[in-house]
Amino acid sequence: xxxxxxxxxxxxxxxxxxxxxxxxxxxxxxxxxxxxxxxxxxxxxxxxxxxxxxxxxxxxxxxxxxxxxxxxxxxxxxxxxxxxxxxxxxxxxxxxxxxxxxxxxxxxxxxxxxxxxxxxxxxxxxxxxxxxxxxxxxxxxxxxxxxxxxxxxxxxxxxxxxxxxxxxxxxxxxxxxxxxxxxxxxxxxxxxxxxxxxxxxxxxxxxxxxxxxxxxxxxxxxxxxxxxxxxxxxxxxxxxxxxxxxxxxxxxxxxxxxxxxxxxxxxxxxxxxxxxxxxxxxxxxxxxxxxxxxxxxxxxxxxxxxxxxxxxxxxxxxxxxxxxxxxxxxxxxxxxxxxxxxxxx
Amino acid sequence: xxxxxxxxxxxxxxxxxxxxxxxxxxxxxxxxxxxxxxxxxxxxxxxxxxxxxxxxxxxxxxxxxxxxxxxxxxxxxxxxxxxxxxxxxxxxxxxxxxxxxxxxxxxxxxxxxxxxxxxxxxxxxxxxxxxxxxxxxxxxxxxxxxxxxxxxxxxxxxxxxxxxxxxxxxxxxxxxxxxxxxxxxxxxxxxxxxxxxxxxxxxxxxxxxxxxxxxxxxxxxxxxxxxxxxxxxxxxxxxxxxxxxxxxxxxxxxxxxxxxxxxxxxxxxxxxxxxxxxxxxxxxxxxxxxxxxxxxxxxxxxxxxxxxxxxxxxxxxxxxxxxxxxxxxxxxxxxxxxxxxxxxxxxxxxxxxxxxxxxxxxxxxxxxxxxxxxxxxxxxxxxxxxxxxxxxxxxxxxxxxxxxxxxxxxxxxxxxxxxxxxxxxxxxxxxxxxxxxxxxxxxxxxxxxxxxxxxxxxxxxxxxxxxxxxxxxxxxxxxxxxxxxxxxxxxxxxxxxxxxxxxxxxxxxxxxxxxxxxxxxxxxxxxxxxxxxxxxxxxxxxxxxxxxxxxxxxxxxxxxxxxxxxxxxxxxxxx
Amino acid sequence: xxxxxxxxxxxxxxxxxxxxxxxxxxxxxxxxxxxxxxxxxxxxxxxxxxxxxxxxxxxxxxxxxxxxxxxxxxxxxxxxxxxxxxxxxxxxxxxxxxxxxxxxxxxxxxxxxxxxxxxxxxxxxxxxxxxxxxxxxxxxxxxxxxxxxxxxxxxxxxxxxxxxxxxxxxxxxxxxxxxxxxxxxxxxxxxxxxxxxxxxxxxxxxxxxxxxxxxxxxxxxxxxxxxxxxxxxxxxxxxxxxxxxxxxxxxxxxxxxxxxxxxxxxxxxxxxxxxxxxxxxxxxxxxxxxxxxxxxxxxxxxxxxxxxxxxxxxxxxxxxxxxxxxxxxxxxxxxxxxxxxxxxxxxxxxx
Lengths: 345, 575, 351
Ligand SMILES: Nc1ncnc2c1ncn2[C@@H]1O[C@H](COP(=O)(O)OP(=O)(O)O)[C@@H](O)[C@H]1O
Ligand SMILES: [Mg+2]
Description:
The complex is a heterotrimer of chains A (345), B (575) and C (351). Chain A is 45% helix and 15% strand. With 345 residues, chain A is α/β, with parallel strands linked by helices. Chain A has two domains: 2-145 and 262-314, Periplasmic binding protein-like II (D-Maltodextrin-Binding Protein, domain 2, 3-Layer(aba) Sandwich), CATH 3.40.190.10; 147-260 and 321-343, 3-Layer(aba) Sandwich (D-Maltodextrin-Binding Protein, domain 2). The radius of gyration of chain A is 21 Å and the shape is globular. Chain C folds into two domains: 4-227, P-loop containing nucleotide triphosphate hydrolases (Rossmann fold); 240-350, CATH 2.40.50.140. In chain C, the strands form four sheets. Chain C has a six-stranded mixed sheet, with helices on both faces. A five-stranded antiparallel sheet of chain C has the order 2-1-4-5-6, covered by helices on one side. Chain C has a five-stranded antiparallel sheet with strand order 14-13-12-15-21. The two termini of chain C are 33 Å apart. The interface between A and B is large, with 57 and 48 residues.
């Protein structure tokens, strides 16, 4: 009886364990061993939705059996607030953090809140992305999530769809746009910096005139569009593809100026209560498994050894808009303030 | 002359007893210290921080300049006052006629209305807010869907993301306090006053406006003031509505100071006026109402006679039902619908029915299960702690066991004037940061919740202790029992009801608390309200609704058990 | 010395003397009433005796031992006293039997004894059949008797009663007066009884201490207090009386319309006060043949028939008004010319 049960369990988990057994690197193995005496990893993230973060955590705990993973998902500014709070309180409770705003990491760095750790697995990272990794070795790219338009096909016909970012100022979209507040959402903050560079204050004034619905996270705007509350939003194209796959009435547009590309970054927190688990998780974010998971979700993989999934634009072949760390640090506060002044919130 | 040896011994040990009185002082000191830590320290720290340059610098006014130097920040304060005023007016309009109808008239279904409105007490404001987003989202909201389907018009009928939407949700979330206090006042009014007017030829409504209402006016004004203060400090509803409505208010601005770059000192400076407004208004109220406080009602007791509304009774009933619909029935219904639907916009149908969201929040989502336990656990711990503290203090104050009891009483009541979010900032500054370093622990949550709801506990305790005739205890003493025996054998059993009802009154808001929790939770101490707020920003309303329903269910179950134990419909009658 | 002694006892609240210079000695087994108007300091005195309040001056001795003084007090639970409270203070969370047995249990008596003595006590107050009821299921009089039983069952050295009947209705109150008297006679427990009702005090007490403004005005037996009040306050407070003022002059005291020899009075002050009870005055239509010094002529100016008595107001030409109580058959009409007389020993000088 007992053996039978054991057999069933073994067969069930066999494929997964086989896959990982062959692939654990030396560094991973060392960290894994050390992590076993720790209490799992707490991952602060605004990079993914709650559901995705849960999935990634589950994947991690399957690959590194016995290492628990607790995702704490919140919007960019809440995550930033939480981490800075902990660093200042000298009571760091999280182990690793990832957000969609590289400038957050410069802030953490300035507060000596990050441990210097670059995963070994970064060696397999696409060169264009690896170039964005911190040259001081505190944080690395953990995802790219191109932004474009997602619109509700029940409410907007294909020939009406906007082509340029600047179309958001077209009165045609009065009361139909949903955006995330750049003061709350990290990636929306980065996007606002890019828009400011392209079109300046006029863009925001024109957008404000269209009375967009302002949420705290880009996921909010996306839900607004899938439910038909709004017809058009600026959000992660990957989320749009998820919705299309789920049969929701939405479609994507890549604006002519190019997709906006906010890189997500991750870094191990200094003084993290579970340093080995944290580093192991960092390795995981840079690993083939994670890139495969990204690809399986229609997202751009980080590594050269994982192919970009079909239907997802290859970043090396399409035009993209990016914001450098320097630009972000220089402009973020001003742009957010301008946004607040124009939108009154 | 014979001497009773027992008495002689005591006469001798008597002088030593006097010096042993010191431990009693220690009790006072202990309680005072506890209150100083819970109440004084956070507020003192807040005031100090507001004058301290960031990074531990010296004295400065810069924080105030940073806080109020921008038109937008001043606008938010102004907006807050307008919103508070609107909320209060709406809450009074919802609460007072309903309270009158439920207590003084023969409106049909009075008990039903009372029970339904009790649901408004159980429903946390942010859930009401989500319910209303589902109802009155400008395009997808059910009301607007129906409107478009009915009329073919594209323009929404109602838009929750607007000033009026904000006020509506705030109003229906806060009017219950007025309802319960004004109901109690109406129940105390003697009918003879009304009869006197009736005899002179006044109809039921004339009597209500000319006699009943003016007599309950102190209570109405007092509870309205309370509602105003609660509404300007409420975080959950503005977090959901005021950003999309582009109507900035103080609590949102405070949250902004807590985002990049974090400016606790500016946040402290920015919250001082809120504290000032609260204290000022309460002082003003004292001034206006004299020392009677807002529970004062002219003429106690007397026979109460039910007013016959005649043919108007169905109209009044309709109004009461409208209040029930707006505050509880509609938001709760749509929340439940969403919780059981694949996609909430599609409405409720067999095709759309699912239990997946419950499965998700109970078994898949890594933090909801724990958050439920944390909410219930910290709520229960805070309720227990606050009731114990409040009961000890009110006993000491009422029985004049120690000098300066008034100081303890004042400290117990003072969190009343501290908006939750301001308290959280103060708590954060004192306890989260080193050297105390309680950040991310359950302790800091329990302490903050205890402080926040201490006034409720103290008021209930005081009423309970006051209801016990001191002669009951003296009877124990004179028969040979000590003070402690008196407490154990008589006071404690007699206070059981007070204890239980006070506990429930504390537990319900503590298990749902958001304003204080939002800055104090750590990754492993997240309470349901915070998880719900995080869920709300992703727009996953179905899951949010499922988790919210589970929380409501647990709280309702605990309250029901409590009500069962209490034996009577507590809160529905005068407490 | 056995018994209770209050020595120069005083209690001050802020600047107000609630009780001042009270001196009372109580013999074992004695029943003393503290009688006085509301607010005169009766409860304060009683609570000092019980030990709930410490005196601010003077002291209390119980059986020769000082139990209270401004330096402190032995706590109530160590005094071996009992008290019956105005509110009865019956514990609503205990049955009648539990209430009565409470004091015995505190004395660590064994269970059988507790049950037996509590049972006997309930028998004595005629409540045995209600032993298992809760107080809320009892009438006021029954609750009163529970309080009595609870206080007496421990055989206290001293029983204190604070207006124990004031919450009962009139007829029950009368019954209970005798009940208290009966039980006191049965157990002979030294008792201090506080009341503002003179008839309660008269029925129950061996002696009455009349208190006014925190001071004892007179301590005496009910009969003495009534017939020989020593102060104007006592004369006025106990029963109804006619108080007349006279002035000393040349070997006699002049009153309005008549005079009495100086030898009847003590003291030297120019003003003299006397009290004559309405019952002590006699009316007659014809001038009575008597050597009473007090004989006045006047008219009936008002009258009321009260059933058991007539209540007349008698008025002399010089304006003196007296109330006179007469038997039902002594009928006079308004305006009738009548004579009023009183024997000399009914004229009591008061101070
Ligand atoms: N705790 C107190 N504080 C201040 N004054 C008191 C207190 N207790 C009694 N008094 C005052 O002392 C006087 C006597 O009161 P009390 O002994 O209760 O009178 P009573 O004869 O009616 O029982 C009253 O004037 C009362 O107001
Ligand atoms: Mg009294």
